[in-house]
TrEMBL record:
It comes from the Bacteria. The chain crosses the membrane at residues 37-56, 77-97. Keywords: Membrane, Transmembrane, Transmembrane helix. This is Uncharacterized protein. It comes from Aquisalimonas asiatica. The keyword Membrane applies. The lineage of its organism: Bacteria, Pseudomonadati, Pseudomonadota, Gammaproteobacteria, Chromatiales. Residues 1-21 are annotated as: Disordered.
Amino acid sequence: MFRNPEGGIIGANRTMPFRQRTGEGPVDPIIEELRSVATWEMILAGVVAVLVTMWFMPGIRESMKRNKENADQPKDWRGLLFPMVFVVLFVLLLISMV
């Protein structure tokens, strides 16, 4: 692990300053609230995730069947790669601005 000029340690948890990880100094109330997630909230989030997955499953199966039927059609890779290149360039632009 390396020390960061702002006082944090670059390592497993780079987002939290060193004094918050060690218990020294004030702790951000948002981080404290995230740590105190109740058990019922975690169970509810898991149930919602399973229900959403089950809700989309018929459409996913139908899409996979159509994909197998249209396997001989030419693929449209330009339609996939063109937007992805612009997203990557935009993210690199945002990173370079920081």
